[in-house]
Amino acid sequence: MLQLHCHAREETTAMTDRAGQPTGPLAGVRVVELAGIGPGPFAGMLLGDLGADVVRVDRPAGSPLAGDPEFELTNRNKRSVLVDLKAPGGAGVVLDLVERADLLIEGYRPGVAERLGVGPAACLDRNPALVYGRMTGWGQSGPLAATAGHDIDYLALSGLLGMIGPAGGPPAVPANLLGDYAGGSLYLVVGLLAALQHARATGTGQVVDAAIVDGAAHLGTLFWGLLAENRWRDARGVNLLDGGAPCYGTYQARDGGYFAVGALEPQFYAEFARLLELGEDAPGQYDTARWPELRALIATRFASRDGAEWTAVFAGTDACVTPVLTLRQAAADAHLLARGTYPAPGGVTQPAPAPRFSATPGALRRPPARPGADTAEVARDWGVAALGEASGTGTGTAAGIGTGAGTLNVDPTNSAERHQR
Known about the structure:
Elements: H1 10-13, E1 30-34, H2 39-49, E2 53-58, E3 78-82, H3 90-99, E4 103-106, H4 112-116, H5 120-126, E5 131-136, H6 151-158, H7 177-202, E6 206-211, H8 212-219, H9 221-228, E7 248-252, E8 258-262, H10 266-276, H11 291-302, H12 307-314, E9 321-323, H13 327-331, H14 334-339, H15 375-382
Parallel strand pairs: 1-2, 1-4, 2-3, 4-5, 5-6
Antiparallel strand pairs: 7-8, 8-9
């Protein structure tokens, strides 16, 4: 079990306020998260980091894709209860939680939540002010709504994947950060909080259809304007911000390390060119006809020294040059250490809550929730007697709670963890 000792700055990762209560701008907001993996749990973590009381409804059988609960960091700042939605009374227990909640996160394929008895109609009937967030890849409607997919598929259809990568080469795969988390989790959270504002003003809840393909498309708004203005070519690796411009890309040092160069503005590029010693005869920054020549020159200069030497050359300057770090290297970086960006509670390095609030800071209050470990505590705090008393193993005794009978099929093509998969 993680020990809750943070080594970051107090305003970022303080565990509780002076009264011993959770801190954060969302303190007092109650969230029900129907268990999954990927963008749904990340959205729940973000809400929990900001102070919300997030209760994760886990399946008795768990997920075949789950790892050690201690390291499932997107389940931090949550509590977990076990509910078998296919057992008699299971859906009723979830609806009891819903009655007391402000927000709900669900990520099954369209129609699955309805068949389990916890769809929007049932939940809003129990709690008309509830905001019901639906996290999917393709959305609740459209020709692809019922089909399987992954982050990379949603990016491909949105047009974003085709923008990333070298000219003449294949599209690059940006892990699952751009689709699942940027186009998915963050848009779901924005939708939930916007609808919560409306619900608190009017008493009326609603459904938030957060589709990764929509969020990913929305991330590309700037480039649709550039396309219309003929300032962006509809091809990858040939534009100002996609690696096409020599002043905006990555270069390898002699010892193999890489550097990111973002010297777009003339004054920053002048500093970059001076420190890199490009010489007065170098092609102009925006002389596009000579970009291949300029890129080769910059690459040759970087390849002439080791990474440590270039780091020293550019340190403290406005040349907009930064070493490309691995995750572990980033956690040891002096700037990020000073900001407490990567605390290590219990020896497990992880990002601190973001963004930062001056009056209501987020906090690392709880380690990742172990499935069912908080059943009794949630039953007491939320006043849901049907959750029953948790046993020593964290499983409950009430109908539909952790009995293992009639467990939900966790086929990832039919579940929250992969949106449409």
